Amino acid sequence: MIAFFKRYAYPDITIKLIVLYALNVMDILFTSFLVNTGFFIEANPIMAVLMNNALVTVLFKILMPAAVFVFLAVHLRHAAEKLRRSANRLIGMLLVVYIGVTLLHISWIIVYYVMCV
C-alpha cells in the first residue's frame, strides 16, 4: 500500500484521483444520511450551509470535484516529473484525509444502527 502512495506515474495518479473522487462522493452520501437521522450535524461549517440546498450540494461536492479531477488528470498526463511528484504527494495527503473521514462515517453509521435501530 505504501508503494502505491509513492508511485507517481501517470496511470497511478489517475487511479488515485478516481479513488479520491469516489471517497468524496461517499463522504457526501454518508454525511447526508447521518445528518438526516437527526442525531448528527455537519462538522464543516461551509458544507453545513451548503447542505440546505440539494442542488448546491451536488454542484459543490460532486460536479465541481469531477471537473477539477479531470482537469488535473489531463494536465498531469504530460507534466514534468517534478510536478507529478508534487501533485502525487498532495493527492496522497487528500487520500489519507478522505480515508479517515470515510472510516469515521462508517463508525458513526455502525453506532447509529447499534443504538437506534
What does this entry look like structurally?
The chain has helices at 2-6, 10-36, 45-50, 54-76, 81-116. With 117 residues, the protein is mostly helical. The longest helix is centred in the C-terminal third of the chain and has 36 residues, at 81-116. The radius of gyration is 16 Å and the shape is elongated.
Q: What does the secondary structure layout of this molecule look like, with pairings?
A:
Elements: H1 2-6, H2 10-36, H3 45-50, H4 54-76, H5 81-116
Mean pLDDT: 92
Q: Whole-number radius of gyration?
A: 16 Å
- Structural class of the secondary elements? mainly alpha
Which bin fits the share of residues in helices?
Answer: over 70%
Strand content: under 5%
The end-to-end span amounts to: 36 Å
Q: Outline the low-pLDDT stretches.
A: none
What series of H and E elements makes up the topology?
Answer: HHHHH
Q: How many distinct beta strands?
A: 0
How would you summarize what this structure contains?
By secondary structure, the chain is mostly helical.
Jot down its keywords:
single chain; 117 residues; mainly alpha; 5 helices
